[in-house]
Design brief:
The protein is of the alpha+beta class. Among the domains are: about 125-230, Chitinase A, domain 3 (Roll); about 230-335, Chitinase A, domain 3; about 370-465, no CATH class; about 515-610, Chitinase A, domain 3, CATH 3.10.50.
Length: about 650
C-alpha cells in the first residue's frame, strides 16, 4: 500500500472553509438558500442567547426564528459574494481558530496539577537573593557548559564561606546587583520566571540552590526567608521626584517640598486632591495617586516595606525615599489570598501567559506522538544538516535541488511528511539568526515543525469529531462574514452615501423636527457698565433698529472690549430662557456669565421647526442604516428561498419547555 507523502504547508493540509459544509446527519430544521440548518445548531444558538426558556411560547420562538433567518440570509449573501474566500477572512478565522483550540491542546491532568501548585505557592512568599550569569536562550551546548562550569565555581566560593552579597556584586550580570547585592525581596507565584520560582520554593531557608536555568541564563538562589502571604495592598501616593544623579541642593529641595506636603496631609487636607496638585508621578497623579493592587516584590524595596507596614486603611506613611524620589503613601485597601475556587480564574489567566503553560502542552504533544505512532528518520535530519551552509546566516540560503527532499522525514497518524517541509521552514527562519551549529538549528526547526503538525492534526480532528468545537468555530465563521457584509451593505454605505443620506432626511423630515424651539439674540459684554449701557440702548425704539456692529460701536470704541452679539436658538428648557415669557419688552435681566455680563432678547417661538442635518448626523446615520438594512433584508428574502420544518419546530419548542 502506498502512503501519501505530504509536501504542502501544514496549515493548508485541511480546509476549514469546506469543513463547514459537511453533512453531520442531523435533522434539518430550516433551509436558507443552499444552507441547511440542523436542529442541533439552532438549539445551541437559541439556548446561548436565551438563558431563561422555561416560559417560552410559540410566539417568542417564532420571533427568534425570524431573527435567526435574517442572520442566515445575510451570511448566505456573504458567501454568494465569496467573502469567505478572501485572504483577509481566512487569516482572521485562522487567528480565532488558534485561540479557540488552545484549551484542547493541553494535558488536563498536568494543567490541574499546575493550578494547584500555583495556588499552594500563593499562600507563601519567599525572600531570595540571586546571582545571574547571562546566557542566550538558544545558546550552543558548548557555551551552555562553559557558563554552567563557571557558576558552579561561584557556588563553591559561597559554600566555602564568602558572603553571598560580596560574591554577587563581583560576579552577577543582573544590573540591579550594585544596588541590592542580589537581594530581590519577597515574591510569590507568577512574579518570577517559572524555573526560578520553582527552585526558590523548593530550596530550604538559608540554603543555596544548584544552578537554575531560565531564559535569562543560569541563577544561583539563596533563600533568606519564607513567610505566609501578606496578600495584596492598594495604596495612593504622592511623589516628589529627583534625578538619580541629583545634586545635594536638588535633594534638599525635594525633601523640603515633600515635608511641606506631608504637613498638609497631617492637617487633614484631601489626599487625592494633593496628589493631583503636587505628585510628580504622572501615571497616578490624575487618579488621585491611586496605584493598582500589588503584592510584595512588585515595587522597589523601600516603597514595598513602607506600604506593607501600614496597618489600617486610611493610614499614611511618613515621607519615604526611593531611587525615584520621595513618597507619601496612603493605604486604601488590603486583600488576602482567596479560596481555590475564588482564585482559579486568576490562576488560569496568569498560567496561560506564563511559560509553565507550555508544560501541559508538551505533555499533550508527547501523548499524541505515542497515540498516533510518531516516528522519525534520523538519517534525514543529518541530510538536512549537510544541505546547509554559511549563506543561511546572511539570509541568502536557498533550498537545493535534491530528490531526497521529497522522501519521508517523519510519520504521524498514518501519514508521511517529506523532508522538504523542514527545508521550507528553515528557509523562512534564516533572517536575523545568530551563528549556531547546523545540528542545533535543524533540531529546533524540526521540533517546531512536528509540534505545528500535531496541533493542526488536532484542530482538524476537533472540527470533524467535536460538536462543541465545530459549532463554536462555525459561529466565528458566520460572525466574521456577517460583520463584513453588514459593513459593506449597511454601515459604511450609510456613512459614505452623502446623497442618499440627504434624500433620506428630506423624505423623512417629519421625524426630525423640534417640538418647540425659542430663538433669541444673546449679548455678552466684558463689564457690567457696558452691559447696562447696551441694555438701555437696545431697549429704546431707536436701538431696536440698529445692527449688531452699530450697537458695538455705540457701546464702546475701545478695541480691547470684546463684545459678542449672536443668534441663539434652543429648547425652552435651556437655563438661558428661564422665565422668558415674563421678560419686560422681551429682554432678560443682566446676569453674570463666564466672560462678563449678558442679557438676552427674545425673538420668536417656533413649533415643528426642522432640525438641521449637521445637528443630528449620528442619529440620522443610525436611522438610515436601519432603513437600508430593512430594504436589503427584503431583497434577500426574495433572492433566497427559506424553508422551515414546522413539525420539527414544534418538537423543539416542546423539548425546550
Amino acid at each position: 500500500m502506498k502512503i501519501k507523502i505530504f509536501i504542502a504547508p501544514i496549515f493548508l493540509a485541511f480546509s476549514l472553509y469546506t469543513a463547514f459544509g459537511q453533512d453531520n446527519n442531523e435533522k434539518t430544521l430550516l433551509t436558507v438558500g443552499n444552507e441547511k440548518v440542523s436542529v442541533d445548531e439552532f438549539k445551541r444558538i437559541y439556548l446561548k442567547n436565551n438563558q431563561m426558556v422555561g416560559d417560552m411560547d410559540k410566539k417568542s420562538l417564532d420571533e427568534y426564528l425570524n431573527l435567526f433567518v435574517i442572520y442566515k440570509l445575510k451570511v448566505a449573501e456573504a458567501k454568494s459574494m465569496e467573502l469567505d474566500k478572501k485572504e483577509s477572512f481566512k487569516k482572521e478565522l485562522d487567528g480565532y481558530k488558534k485561540q479557540l483550540v488552545q484549551p484542547f491542546l493541553t494535558d488536563k491532568e498536568t494543567e490541574d496539577r499546575l493550578y494547584k501548585e500555583a495556588y499552594e505557592r500563593m499562600q507563601y512568599e519567599v525572600d531570595a537573593s540571586h546571582i545571574l550569569l547571562a546566557l542566550p536562550e538558544k545558546a550552543t551546548p558548548e557555551d551552555t557548559l562553559a557558563i554552567y562550569d563557571k557558576i558552579m565555581k561561584i557556588r563553591q566560593r559561597i559554600i566555602d564561606g564568602e558572603p553571598f552579597e560580596v560574591v554577587a556584586k563581583a560576579t552577577s550580570d543582573d544590573p540591579s546587583v550594585k544596588r541590592n547585592g542580589g537581594r530581590l525581596g519577597y515574591f510569590t507565584a507568577f512574579q518570577m520566571v517559572y524555573p526560578f520560582e520553582k527552585a526558590a520554593y523548593n530550596t530550604p531557608v538559608g540554603s543555596i540552590s544548584m544552578p537554575v536555568r531560565s531564559r535569562f541564563g543560569y541563577h544561583l538562589i539563596k533563600v533568606n526567608d519564607k513567610r505566609l502571604s501578606v496578600g495584596q495592598i492598594k495604596v495612593a501616593h504622592i511623589m516628589i521626584a529627583f534625578p538619580q544623579n541629583a545634586t545635594e541642593a536638588q535633594q534638599m529641595q525635594a525633601k523640603a517640598k515633600i515635608d511641606s506636603i506631608y504637613k498638609l496631609v497631617l492637617n487633614n487636607e484631601d489626599f487625592a486632591s494633593l496628589a493631583r496638585s503636587y505628585s510628580q508621578d504622572p501615571g497616578s497623579a490624575r487618579n488621585g495617586g491611586e496605584l493598582p493592587y500589588f503584592g510584595p516584590g512588585r515595587m522597589v524595596p523601600e516603597f514595598d516595606r513602607a506600604a506593607f507596614a501600614l496597618q489600617a486603611d486610611g493610614q499614611v506613611s511618613e515621607p519615604v525615599r526611593t531611587q525615584f524620589g520621595w513618597h507619601i503613601i496612603k493605604r486604601l485597601d488590603k486583600k488576602l489570598v482567596g479560596t481555590y475556587d475564588e482564585m482559579l480564574p486568576e490562576i488560569k489567566t496568569k498560567l496561560s501567559r506564563d511559560e509553565r503553560g507550555r508544560l501541559s502542552h508538551n505533555v499533550f504533544i508527547k501523548s499524541m506522538k505515542e497515540k498516533y505512532g510518531f516516528s522519525v528518520d534520523s538519517s534525514m535530519l543529518k541530510s538536512m544538516e549537510g544541505m546547509l551552509d554559511d549563506s543561511y546566516f546572511s539570509g541568502t540560503w536557498q533550498i537545493p535541488l535534491a530528490k531526497k527532499l521529497d522522501q519521508p522525514l517523519f510519520h504521524f497518524a498514518g501519514k508521511s511528511y517529506a523532508l522538504r517541509l523542514l527545508a521550507e521552514r528553515i528557509k523562512e527562519t534564516q533572517r536575523g539568526q545568530n551563528r549556531i551549529p547546523f545540528g542545533v538549528l535543524v533540531e529546533r526547526n524540526f521540533n517546531d515543525l512536528v509540534e505545528s503538525t500535531i496541533n493542526s492534526f488536532e484542530e482538524e480532528r476537533l472540527v470533524r469529531e467535536n460538536p462543541d468545537f465545530y459549532y463554536l468555530l462555525k459561529e466565528y465563521y458566520d460572525g466574521i462574514l456577517l460583520f463584513e457584509i453588514m459593513d459593506m451593505c449597511v454601515w459604511s454605505k450609510a456613512s459614505n452615501d452623502a446623497d442618499g443620506l440627504a434624500e433620506f432626511y428630506r423624505n423623512n423630515i417629519d421625524n426630525y423636527k423640534w417640538e418647540k424651539r425659542v430663538h433669541a439674540v444673546q449679548y455678552v459684554f466684558p463689564s457690567e457698565p457696558l452691559a447696562k449701557k447696551a441694555y438701555k440702548l437696545v431697549t429704546s425704539k431707536k436701538g431696536a433698529l440698529l445692527t449688531p456692529d452699530e450697537i458695538k460701536k455705540r457701546v464702546s470704541s475701545n478695541p480691547k472690549d470684546t463684545i459678542v452679539i449672536s443668534d441663539y436658538a434652543s429648547l425652552p428648557e435651556d437655563p438661558v430662557f428661564k422665565g422668558y415669557k415674563e421678560w419686560p419688552k422681551g429682554f432678560s435681566p443682566i446676569t453674570p456669565v463666564d466672560k462678563g455680563y449678558s442679557f438676552v432678547r427674545f425673538v420668536k417661538e417656533e413649533v415643528g421647526e426642522p432640525i438641521p442635518m449637521e445637528d443630528i448626523r449620528g442619529r440620522l446615520i443610525a436611522d438610515y442604516q436601519e432603513f437600508l438594512e430593512k430594504q436589503w433584508v427584503e431583497s434577500l428574502r426574495e433572492k433566497y428561498e427559506v424553508i422551515v420544518n414546522r413539525e420539527l419546530l414544534e418538537e423543539v419548542a416542546s423539548n425546550l419547555n
